[in-house]
Q: What sequence folds into this?
């Protein structure tokens, strides 16, 4: 079997990036966060939620409901519906599915919403039954959760490629600096490299500031055809390329690359660009080691060169390689499945000139990445989208 | 064996409540319990293409065959990466941090996440084992390859997965069991602090009881499992300071179904065995259940010495078989009960013992020394079902293959 040529996206746009401000803990259900996000989408777009004919929902905390229950709960009557349970890869997957739906006319306006609540014991409960493999063969061995899983990836990466804690620290410090200009970021205090290095170990070599903080929140946007956006008078960004891959490179004993490495050429070819053409990048950042894999797998540097790359680049929004310009999840918080949507709405804001104090100048083309689902000992899902400014 | 004797418990301090590690497992995940219970390293192996599947699967990821039987596989492996978990949201594991965890390339094929023994070296070779956790669910524990270092059994996670009798205070419920002297010597040899040995009707002269009394570290107590009052009195004195119970109730009489008095005989034997176990469970068992996490001296295990006739009636010992089956049933319930307290129930199955009652049975028979050694070994390795001696092992293998064959050949 040979892969056929991929059809370019025809006039698919993303509009109305919205964020329901994150909270460390919430007494409300995920449904409340979905409702708040949908209300903002409706207000900002001038399109009643009753007139939106597509919904793509991502959440870890919606049980026992799925997206179909949301249609009744929120009074929508859609003709296209999807639930994307892919964790950090949900946003990319949502865009890809919604794009083809609006392109073909199966739907005109798709609301892509990721929302999760975080009750005081939610995190432990979701760790303990995250997946069957994790329940059978990871969690009973010390209940280290994602921290321990990423500790193995981090340790292996350090051993193989000579990365040091300081290298990971540079990423976290830069992102914190970015977060200080993002009113929605839960982390409000500056972070120094000394403070990063002095943080307590959580699951060696992962230390406190390598870990995202679970929180409640929602991020959302609308996918539609360009003509629809223009008719509504909405500013938008164009979708020009995307990739998605699940369970790539099972032959690697420890994960050192994500599915991006397999599909990266496809991504740039579809968007007609190259790593040099990306003005602003939002990586998926549940742990800094994954950011390094993305720098390499997306071609910003070679395999094993990410430590040197972070030493020689300024990753802040004013720097020579603007990355996670809103602070990323590491400094904003990880609102469950919304973690992947965070990078998409930030990319949209940067390309639409709505990023306020943290606006990257001349941001014409951006990339948002997704990664997720440590089903057993590695993250299974990866994805990427390239978006371009409208004018 | 250099761990110091734990200090006396301060009665003013709170007794730590037993907690259990995460217990849920998938249907297929439960397959590994059988291997862990008997001390084998066995994983699912595809009957069609030979690929070893882990974590437990419902289909082979190579050929999609659903035929993935539990199969003994090589236990070696190489450590790919390790972490030390210092922070967890799980209340049970919070008590045990820091916890070493490794990602291992197993010789059998799959990557395996396992607890790491403290002596494992970075990127070194390991020997994998399946163990039962405090709640009886399977986990993987990696030892360093090669001979064990001194005090290897002192690894803190390994201690959670085993019931080493070192410094334990033990109750042997019936001093008249034919192996009682050997059992006491073996347990004391393994470092047991003190053994209380129950004796019913102590006025009856017995050379064996005299021999027991002469063993240093053994203390005879009045205990008649047939008598509720007697069990309650003994428990009132001792139940709070026993870490291991060895239920050695032994009352063997042969006989067939047509013997006059067969029913009465079953009743007599059940008074000692099954019903005695009920009385001991209600007193000593209940106390141990609350002490599964009791500081330096947690309640560890309850051993039942049972005959393989508990699983399949024997024509030469019909009444005994019935009583043993009843006792096994109670033992299973006790296991279910004590799991909640993190206390293991070890069922030790044996064939004919090498004693007068089995004079007419040809060898191989099980001697007191082998029985005692097997009990200590089961405790130290954290086993749950143990078949001791050639006859019991033969029985297990044949029952695994075809229980109907064993039933027919026994009864012809």
A:
């Amino acid at each position: 079997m040979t892969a056929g040529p991929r059809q370019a996206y025809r006039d698919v746009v993303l509009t109305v990036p919205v964020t329901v401000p994150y909270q460390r803990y919430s007494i409300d259900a995920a449904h409340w966060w979905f409702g708040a996000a949908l209300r903002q989408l409706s207000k900002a777009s001038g399109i009643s939620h009753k007139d939106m004919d597509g919904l793509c929902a991502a959440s870890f905390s919606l049980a026992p409901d799925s997206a179909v229950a949301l249609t009744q709960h929120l009074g929508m009557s859609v003709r296209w519906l999807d639930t994307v349970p892919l964790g950090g890869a949900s946003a990319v997957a949502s865009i890809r599915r919604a794009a083809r739906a609006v392109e073909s006319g199966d739907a005109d306006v798709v609301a892509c919403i990721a929302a999760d609540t975080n009750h005081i014991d939610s995190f432990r409960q979701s760790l303990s039954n995250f997946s069957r493999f994790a329940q059978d063969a990871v969690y009973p061995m010390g209940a280290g959760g994602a921290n321990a899983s990423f500790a193995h990836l981090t340790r292996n990466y350090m051993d193989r490629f000579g990365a040091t804690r300081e290298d990971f620290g540079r990423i976290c410090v830069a992102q914190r600096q970015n977060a200080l200009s993002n009113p929605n970021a839960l982390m409000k205090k500056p972070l120094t490299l000394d403070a990063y290095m002095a943080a307590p170990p959580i699951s060696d070599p992962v230390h406190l500031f390598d870990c995202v903080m679970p929180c409640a929140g929602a991020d959302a946007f609308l996918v539609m055809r360009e003509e629809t956006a223009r008719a509504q008078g909405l500013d938008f960004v164009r979708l020009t390329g995307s990739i998605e891959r699940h369970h790539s490179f099972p032959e690697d004993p420890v994960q050192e690359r994500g599915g991006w490495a397999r599909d990266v050429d496809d991504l740039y070819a579809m968007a007609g660009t190259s790593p040099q053409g990306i003005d602003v990048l939002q990586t998926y950042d549940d742990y800094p080691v994954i950011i390094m894999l993305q720098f390499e797998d997306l071609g910003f540097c070679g395999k094993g060169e990410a430590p040197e790359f972070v030493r020689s680049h300024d990753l802040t929004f004013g720097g020579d390689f603007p990355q996670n310009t809103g602070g990323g999840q590491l400094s904003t918080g990880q609102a469950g499945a919304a973690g992947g949507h965070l990078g998409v709405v930030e990319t949209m804001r940067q390309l639409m000139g709505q990023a306020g104090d943290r606006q990257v100048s001349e941001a014409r083309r951006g990339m948002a990445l997704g990664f997720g689902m440590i089903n057993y000992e590695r993250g299974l899902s990866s994805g990427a989208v390239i978006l371009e400014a409208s004018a | 064996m250099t761990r110091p004797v734990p200090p006396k418990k301060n009665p003013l301090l709170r007794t730590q409540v037993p907690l259990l590690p995460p217990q849920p497992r998938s249907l297929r995940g439960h397959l590994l319990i059988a291997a862990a219970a008997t001390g084998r390293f066995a994983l699912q192996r595809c009957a069609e293409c030979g690929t070893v599947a882990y974590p437990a699967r419902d289909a082979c990821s190579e050929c999609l065959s659903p035929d993935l039987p539990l199969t003994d596989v090589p236990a070696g492996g190489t450590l790919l990466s390790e972490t030390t978990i210092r922070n967890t949201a799980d209340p049970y594991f919070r008590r045990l941090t820091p916890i070493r965890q490794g990602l291992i390339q197993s010789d059998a094929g799959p990557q395996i996440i396992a607890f790491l023994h403290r002596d494992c070296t970075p990127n070194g070779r390991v020997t994998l084992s399946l163990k039962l956790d405090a709640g009886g669910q399977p986990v993987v524990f990696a030892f360093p390859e090669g001979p064990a270092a001194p005090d290897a059994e002192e690894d803190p996670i390994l201690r959670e997965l085993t019931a080493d009798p070192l410094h334990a205070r033990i109750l042997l419920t019936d001093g008249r069991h034919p192996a009682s002297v050997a059992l006491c010597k073996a347990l004391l040899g393994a470092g047991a602090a003190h053994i209380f040995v129950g004796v019913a009707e102590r006025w009856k002269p017995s050379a064996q009881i005299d021999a027991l009394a002469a063993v240093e570290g053994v203390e005879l107590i009045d205990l008649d499992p047939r008598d509720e009052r007697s069990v309650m009195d003994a428990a009132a004195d001792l139940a709070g300071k026993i870490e291991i119970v060895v239920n050695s109730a032994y009352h063997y009489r042969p006989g067939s179904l047509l013997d006059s008095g067969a029913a009465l005989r079953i009743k007599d034997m059940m008074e000692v065995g099954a019903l005695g176990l009920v009385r001991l469970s209600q007193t000593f068992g209940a106390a141990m259940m609350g002490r599964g996490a009791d500081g330096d001296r947690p309640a560890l295990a309850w051993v039942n010495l049972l005959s393989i006739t508990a699983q399949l009636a024997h024509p030469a010992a019909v009444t005994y078989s019935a009583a043993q089956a009843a006792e096994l049933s109670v033992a299973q319930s006790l296991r279910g009960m004590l799991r909640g307290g993190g206390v293991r129930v070890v069922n030790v199955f044996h064939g004919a013992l090498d004693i007068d009652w089995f004079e007419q049975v040809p060898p191989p028979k099980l001697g007191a020394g082998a029985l005692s050694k097997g009990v200590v070994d089961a405790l130290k390795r954290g086993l749950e079902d143990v078949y001791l001696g050639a006859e019991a092992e033969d029985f297990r293998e044949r029952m695994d293959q075809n229980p109907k064959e064993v039933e027919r050949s026994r009864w012809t």
About this structure: Residues 128-212+237-389 of chain A form a domain with the Peroxisomal Thiolase; Chain A, domain 1 fold (CATH 3.40.47.10). Chain A touches chain B at residues 123-124, 127-129, 132-133, 135-145, 147-148, 151-153, 155-156, 159, 200-206, 253-254, 376-377 (CB under 8 Å). The first strand of chain A starts at residue 12 and ends at 23. The CA atoms of residues 247 and 380 of chain A lie 5 Å apart.
